[in-house]
Amino acid sequence: MWFQWDDQKHYIHASWGCGWFLATFFVGFNLIGQIGGSLMVLTRFRVDYACGMLFGIVVLQTLAYTILWDVQFLLRNLSLVGALLLLFAESRSEGKTIFAGLPSLGDNKPLSYLQLTGRVLVIFMFTTVLRLELSIIYIVQNVVATSLMVLVTIGYKTKLSALLLVLWLLGLNCYLNAWWSVPSYSPMRDFLKYDFFQTLSVVGGLLMVVSLGPGGVSMDEQKKRW
Predict the structure, then answer these.
(1) Which of 81-85, 86-90, 136-140 has the lowest mean pLDDT?
(2) Are 121 and 85 in contact (CB under 8 A)?
(3) Is residue 216 predicted with pLDDT exceeding 70?
(4) Distances, alpha carbon 151 to alpha carbons 32, 92, 157, 200, in Å
(5) Are 204 and 153 in contact (CB under 8 A)?
(6) How far apart are CA 201 and CA 207, in angstroms?
(7) What pLDDT was estimated at residue 226?
(8) In the chain, fewer beta carbons within 10 Å around the N or the C end?
């Protein structure tokens, strides 16, 4: 946003015909919202409010950049929403802790369903990297990736499956979105850079699953009760 200030303003102005003032206001609001929300998360200051702010930014970008009609970009943004939901669930769980080292009393059903929704949405990122090509490499890759996605979604062997998806997604991200290898004058560099850092955010969401577990609505949790 900062380094391409004029390009961003021009795009919004040309796409929506809203005038230069509103285009400038949109880009500035977008920039401040992203930086402010991210700093609040990093400093652990009102993380729940920060998640709401960043969620609003994701929705705003989806509408303003007409991502709503691009299935691949829409799925990636839904994955970002899933990562934010997991972060929000973690902040609420942390706030519900009564004493350090002791679990809170009772089951928190809304929190469990929030974690379930976050897990399902985060997985959408992986549907964008599946390749429908008849080669041994892609077939094996698709079968393994789909199996891991299903395991994370239903919450079975969740931490291990999520960790394997983290490693797989990191490798694919460095291979498919190697923006540093593209000349700075090429428009493709910006697209790859956007995808690269967006994918890293989803990796962060998966690491939340590795750290916190799947939550109450999962097969792993049901196994404990059996």
Answers:
(1) 136-140
(2) yes
(3) yes
(4) 37, 25, 7, 21
(5) no
(6) 10
(7) 62
(8) C
Maximum Cα–Cα distance across the chain: 62
The two structure tokens encoding residue 89? 């669930």
**What does the buried/exposed string (b/e) look like for 78-117 if buried means 16 or more CB atoms within 10 Å of the residue's CB?**
bbbbbbbbbbbbbbbbeeeeeeeeeeeeeebeebbebbbb
Please state the three-class secondary structure of the chain as a single string.
Answer: CCCCHHHHHHHHHHHHCCCHHHHHHHHHHHHHHHHHHHHHHHCCCCHHHHHHHHHHHHHHHHHHCCHHHCHHHHHHHHHHHHHHHHHHHHHHHHHHCCCCCCCCCCCCHHHHHHHHHHHHHHHHHHHCCCCCCCCHHHHHHHHHHHHHHHHHHHCCCHHHHHHHHHHHHHHHHHHHCCHHHCCCCCHHHHHHHHHHHHHHHHHHHHHHHHHHCCCCCCHHHHHHHC
The mean pLDDT value for 131-146 works out to 79
Task: Output the pLDDT for position 21.
Answer: 92
Is the pLDDT at 107 greater than 70? The verdict is: no
Q: Decide if 199 contacts 125 (C-beta within 8 A).
A: yes
Query: What is the phi/psi pair of residue 215, to 5°?
Result: 95, -175
For residue 75 the two structure tokens come to: 């799925």
Half-sphere exposure of 88 (CA within 13 A, CB side): 25
pTM across the whole model: 0.83
